[in-house]
Amino acid sequence: MSPKRAAGPARTLLVLDYPGERPEARVCELGLPGTRDLLAVPPPPVTPDRYLSALPAPGPAGAVLAYCAAAPLAAALAARVGREGREGRSVPLVLFDAEPVTAATVLTAYRDTVAQLGLVPGPAELRELAACVADPGAFLTTARARLIGHVGTALGADGADAADVADLAGPMTDAALRWLAHLLAAHHTPPPSPAGPTLRILSAHTPGDGVRIPSDRAELLRDPRTYRAVASFLTAHGALTDD
Fold first, then answer.
1. What is the torsion angle, in degrees rounded to the nearest 10, for the CA atoms of residue 152, residue 155, residue 159 and residue 160?
2. Distance from C-alpha of 130 to C-alpha of 163, rounded to nearest angstrom
3. Which residue, 77, 85, 186, 200, could crosslink 101 as a Cys pair with Cβ 3.0–4.6 Å?
4. How many helices (H) and strands (E) does the chain have?
5. How does pLDDT run across 216-230, given as a tens digit for each residue?
6. This prediction's pTM
């Protein structure tokens, strides 16, 4: 039986859910009314101090919802929306399987990106990038140069000529850098103080404290129990209206 649906949003529900290929369901699949995904088109690879400003202007909102690595950004956005709106404090925040974004997270994402090209970054390259995580601008500059080289190597191995490599390397590198910039921004975003009301939803095997839904991670955002927990929280805080 499908869950009973709330009548509608009191105000817009802002969503941070990075696009891309993944087996896990997305926040939009919950079916909440009035959502607006600010990451539908990811911002260019800018440094963390500019990242939230590079998103579409959020405007007034009833709550912020975020998946996984976007959690720190969502908390900062909820505080910003609250300060700019009538609340004066963070608007309600809903986090799904939130996980910390560490330096190791960023480096793993870089290594995985290179692996998709059929290549393995060398130890010296990884040490160079590890030393740059504390300086996101330097990281993005270094990663861009390294990735362009890797893309050229991979395309050349597939028989692409120099013109094709030049045409393809830029877009492929830009897509990878957008994801890395997202992770760097999450890694460097401090938690707001004070925080507003927060609901943490966890799938069956994700560590942490919060409302645990006995669902695997891939189905968490399709699970009716997740919808009911979120709708109840948002309704209690005035972000959704009752039937």
1. -70
2. 32
3. 186
4. 7, 8
5. 999 999 999 999 999
6. 0.91
